[in-house]
């Protein structure tokens, strides 16, 4: 179930980044069709934007004396989404591989100021991420996501994280696919304002179901405000200790409201860290902390208590 080579599993605090796509779109004026950042790897300007972005979080890690998760901009770099952007299967495999190589190079650059740097591939849901999933069974999910995870493993990723998952069946399939290629894997669910997954399953039940079928190395929750997670914390059980990561939205709005919003709701960056207090108190094993939609380095710096 666990991989002792990952520092976050040994209690090492790890900084990860914020809302990559919303930051680039709303603060940098970057056009990201289909909300996909991975095409930026195919241009010098795109790589420069990504480097500036990741460097801000390396600086936070150094100031906080924490480790650093360098997570690839590959949340949308799967077959269905890639096809919409004009990438065939070979093109998508290439960009996933190059994303890991790019982050490994950045990791070497940051090594002088940050210890415990982990290069991680990121997987997104086959479907939307704000709505209940595509209803694949675990075998179908393993087949769909397996080639992306294999590309990460072949390129030298140290782990992978599947973000914004909306149902337990897709999560189980992703874990099975990662195990098949020998890649440590974490699963991150998203929740609605009531603390339940978009398909209605309580978070505790989803964690327990995945653990019973094919346990990942750990779990996270992402793409929800900390207050949305609070109702889920009423459920007793050992599941809380399995949640080691949190990447929250800046906004208290629901997924449906955010989907309709035309302007960025970035909340209050200065109080973002304080908004996590109740959740952090109830999840004793949290080690990986960052942001999601609407957040940038200001929010993550607040979360870590650094200027």
TrEMBL record:
Keywords from the UniProt entry: Metal-binding, Methyltransferase, Transferase, Zinc
The UniProt record lists the keyword Transferase: yes
Cofactor(s) this protein requires: Zn(2+)
PROSITE patterns referenced in this protein's UniProt entry, alphabetically: HCY
Gene3D superfamilies listed in its UniProt record: Homocysteine-binding-like domain
UniProt keyword Metal-binding, yes or no: yes
Sequence positions that bind Zn(2+): 223, 292-293
Domain Hcy-binding residue range list: 2-307
Protein name: Homocysteine S-methyltransferase family protein
Protein source organism: Microlunatus ginsengisoli
């Amino acid at each position: 179930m666990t991989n002792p080579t990952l520092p976050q599993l040994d209690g090492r605090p790890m900084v990860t980044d914020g809302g990559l796509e919303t930051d680039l779109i709303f603060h940098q004026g970057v056009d990201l069709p289909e909300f996909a950042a991975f095409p930026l790897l195919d241009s010098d300007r795109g790589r420069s934007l990504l480097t500036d972005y990741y460097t801000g979080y390396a600086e936070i890690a150094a100031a906080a004396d924490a480790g650093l998760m360098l997570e690839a901009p590959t949340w949308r770099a799967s077959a269905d989404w890639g096809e919409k952007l004009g990438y065939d299967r070979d093109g998508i495999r290439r960009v996933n591989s190059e994303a890991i190589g790019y982050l490994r190079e950045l990791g070497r650059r940051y090594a002088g100021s940050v210890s415990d740097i982990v290069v991680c591939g990121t997987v997104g849901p086959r479907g939307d991420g704000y709505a209940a999933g595509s209803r694949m069974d675990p075998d179908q999910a393993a087949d769909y996501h397996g080639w992306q995870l294999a590309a990460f493993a072949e390129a030298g990723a140290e782990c992978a994280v599947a973000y914004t998952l909306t149902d337990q069946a897709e999560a189980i399939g992703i874990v099975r696919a990662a195990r098949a290629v020998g890649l440590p894997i974490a699963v991150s669910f998203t929740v609605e304002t009531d603390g339940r997954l978009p398909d209605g399953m309580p978070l505790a039940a989803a964690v327990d179901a995945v653990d019973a079928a094919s346990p990942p190395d750990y779990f996270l929750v992402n793409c929800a405000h900390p207050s949305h997670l609070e109702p889920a914390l009423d459920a007793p059980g050992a599941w809380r200790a399995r949640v080691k990561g949190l990447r929250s939205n800046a906004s208290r709005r629901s997924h449906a409201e955010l989907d309709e919003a035309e302007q960025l709701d970035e909340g209050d960056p200065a109080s973002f860290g304080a908004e996590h207090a109740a959740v952090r108190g109830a999840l004793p094993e949290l080690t990986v902390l960052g942001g999601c939609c609407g957040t940038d380095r200001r929010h993550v710096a607040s979360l870590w208590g650094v200027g």
